Amino acid sequence: MVHIGNLNDSLWIARPLAQNHRWLCASPAYLEQHGVPSTPDELASHRCICIRENDEDVTLWHLSKGHAKKTLRIEPALLSNDGSVARRWAEQGLGIVLRSQWDVSDAIASGNLVRVLADWQLASAPINLLVPVRKHRSARVQALTEFLETTLKG
After folding, report:
1. What class does CATH assign to 1-19+126-154?
2. How far, in Å, are 7, 109, 145 from residue 87 at the CA level?
3. In whole angstroms, what is the distance from residue 73 CA to residue 97 CA?
4. What distance in Å separates the CA atoms of residue 33 and residue 16, rounded to the nearest whole number?
5. pLDDT tens digits, residue range 107-146?
6. Do the Cβ atoms of 113 and 95 come closer than 8 Å?
7. What letter does residue 5 receive in the DSSP assignment?
8. What's the CATH code, domain 21-123?
9. Is pLDDT at 5 greater than 70 in this prediction?
């Protein structure tokens, strides 16, 4: 099983496959209407879009810039359990969304989305292959593990 984010279940072994950097993004129209936040604290006065994934606290955003660290409790204007819906909402100008770099890089390249607070890093949500805790794994599980590690790290 492939899992994105931190793992809290000890019944599985997490094999790291790739980093998953996340960015804050909004549409140019949203930023034109509501202004561009210049500090994390200014997010409190913006419409934020949250995505309920796994068992994470989706309203807690962790940002860092050099030695400065900031944790914010977000009051979501919109909440979804579907990342593609949340991205569409952001593209439609409904708020600022926190998404994986690989998910929004095409929308940023096309100008549909713009990075917000780009000089701040957000907590990563690593991509892991979850394998059962067993001494002997099947040949198929081992082959899949090797394929994914080679493909995603190479």
Report:
1. alpha beta
2. 24, 15, 30
3. 14
4. 40
5. 999 999 999 999 999 887 767 777 777 666 678 777 877 7
6. no
7. S
8. 3.40.190.290
9. no
